[in-house]
Please model this.
Amino acid sequence: MAFKKIGVVGCGLMGRGIAEVSAKTGYDVVVSEINRELLDKGMAAINQSLAKAVEKGKMTEADRDKTLSKIKGTVDMQEFKDCDLVVEAAIENLGLKKKIFIDLDRICAPGAILSTNTSCLSVMDVAAVTKRPDKVLGCHFFNPVPVMKLLELVKTITTSQETLDAALEWGKSLGKTVIVAPDRPGFIVNRAFMPYMVEAFEMYESGVASREDIDTGVQLGLNHPMGPLTLADMVGLDTLLFVIDAIYAETKNPKFVAPVLLRKMVTAGHLGRKTGKGFYDYK
Ligand code: CAA
Model:
């Protein structure tokens, strides 16, 4: 089954990236937000990202215009009614995601595939509120979506092979390398990533090394594009805390106990780049 029209719920950091990449690779896209203000902000960010690509000579002006013409922003979920695939990229709140899936199940055609971009929540929990659990899977993209090469598809115990095959075909057509993960806490990537981040936070908290040495050590010693504390500031400390806590809640594995400092920083609003302060200052 080849998709023609993709729906994206949420035009935040992840949603707008998914919308941009889908439109760039030729799909018609509908992206929704909960109000006009957030929609305008998200659409402006897509415009800016494409303008940067033109500036850098990575895209022609004609291709930018074509991409933009393929994206329709909306505040009305009814617009998803003729989408072949809808990717939900709302905030990481299971109650909210379930509500969105109940709505999508009602609005979308019976054959449409529904997916969630969750980085840590149980995909089965959202599939279970729909009448089409065989057509539900996880589509876990990575930040920044236009740059990161990976798409992690998450197959639940009810996802059909047909659904998985269609999502695999779509993911590859976006230019992503696609892996298939089981619907287990952390899937594949965050199961490896979070203990690494916890260790970096603990090293910093207990004064083993300075933030700069931790970052430089990992960046140059392991050839990572950025060190863990810089990366934490980019991803958002609140997001990381949420993911670590969610995996711990399901596994009770001590590898996923969030360090006290991380919790305090989130409480203080030191969330990283987005608030101007995290492990580093950005003001
Ligand atoms: N949108 C589009 N393009 C972007 C971009 C964005 N937000 N940010 C950077 N780029 C592009 C730049 O245009 C540039 O492209 P060219 O080389 O073709 O000019 C390229 O990416 C490199 O960017 P920069 O030179 O500005 O900066 P950099 O070399 O330091 O790279 C980075 C920036 C791509 C973010 C890189 O540091 C990196 O890959 N960092 C690690 C990111 C990572 O680990 N992400 C995963 C986070 S975890 C997650 O998402 C999962 C989860 O569940 C929590």
